[in-house]
Amino acid sequence: MKFKLILFVILGLVLLGGCGGGSSSSSTSAEENATKNDAEPIKLNTFDLENKVVTLNNGVKMPILGIGTYALSDSQAENSVYWALKAGFRLIDTAKIYGNESGVGRGIKRAVDEGIVTRSEIFVTTKMWTSDYSNGEAAIETSLNNLGLDYIDLMILHHSQPSNDAVAYKSLENALNEGKLRAVGLSNYYEPEDFDRLVNSTAIRPAILQNETHPYHQSSEMKNHISKYGTVLESWYPLGGRGHTQELFNNSVISSIAETHNKSSAQIILRWHLQAGNIAIPGSSNEQHIFEDYDIWDFSLSDNEMTQIAELEKDTRFSTY
Ligand SMILES: NC(=O)c1ccc[n+]([C@@H]2O[C@H](COP(=O)([O-])OP(=O)(O)OC[C@H]3O[C@@H](n4cnc5c(N)ncnc54)[C@H](OP(=O)(O)O)[C@@H]3O)[C@@H](O)[C@H]2O)c1
Fold this sequence. Notes:
Blueprint (H helix, E strand, L loop, with lengths): L1 H20 L5 H8 L12 E2 L4 E3 L5 E3 L2 E3 L5 H14 L3 E3 L7 H13 L9 E6 L7 H12 L4 E6 L7 H13 L3 E7 L4 H9 L7 E5 L7 H8 L4 E5 L8 H5 L2 H10 L3 H12 L1 E3 L6 H8 L8 H8 L11
Parallel strand pairs: 4-5, 5-6, 6-7, 7-8, 8-9, 9-10, 10-11
Antiparallel strand pairs: 1-2, 2-3
Helix pairs in contact: 3-4, 3-12, 4-5, 10-11
Bound molecules: NADP nicotinamide-adenine-dinucleotide phosphate.
């Protein structure tokens, strides 16, 4: 009888604890969850379109619309980042391999010096390149120096590389613990098994997974899979990527929805990403496009329009990597 009573009390305590575990309002439980790869699924990644942020699985808030800088020269990146911050963007995406981290840093400094933003209001992402995986610590220092920052908000591994990506990820975890990074994540993991391989050999759940994602490659399987870790999907090539944007912009479903809302096809696609739960980081070196890409908060797509775009899925990637 006494044994049954103790068992009952323990069961009650476990159940009570479980109720609080998935709450998005508790950043402590989010942080705890972020380090327990075998814990129960957590659902923290609800997009807050009003405040334009999503809460990551470690409790950090990340803007859901950012400026991408792939293929931009150092000086183009400086201008794009500066214009983007002026337009309202608060998320910036770069990578060491783009060769423009210094330009990104200068664009940030210009905006901060002019009082457009403060450092703490913006969220800077960079990526560790595959050839640096065995020297992760040095690569993180190089990116910090290039950017001219004393911390980076999010650093991700640029590609899956089973031979040493877990070692590289551990260097990210160490930098996170030292306060040099605020969140860590992955890019270019396209198979659930590959994602799990990395997750199961490291301690901290990836906050985001950045993969090629657009209406012709919607990443539904991966998005569903990573949600059990509270990991958010971030779309690269959100508009199809350079050389492919017109295929999406001229799609009759997208252009007719654009006409209905008196918006451009680019704006419809970006709004679709956010309503579908994808962080989007459109790249541009054109000031007018940058302002246009940020002007997507004053309308929303109906359920029917979201379904029409969901039906455009072709499982086709534009990139080969
Ligand atoms: N993790 C990875 O492996 C990986 C790979 C690729 C990219 N990325 C990241 O994801 C970001 C986005 O990808 P992306 O830049 O390659 O492709 P994207 O954003 O899909 O497309 C960029 C193209 O869209 C055009 N564009 C942007 N806004 C437009 C608008 N409002 N109207 C018309 N055209 C517009 C740009 O031209 P203009 O310059 O003329 O505006 C550019 O040609 C990158 O910049 C990078 O930060 C990551």
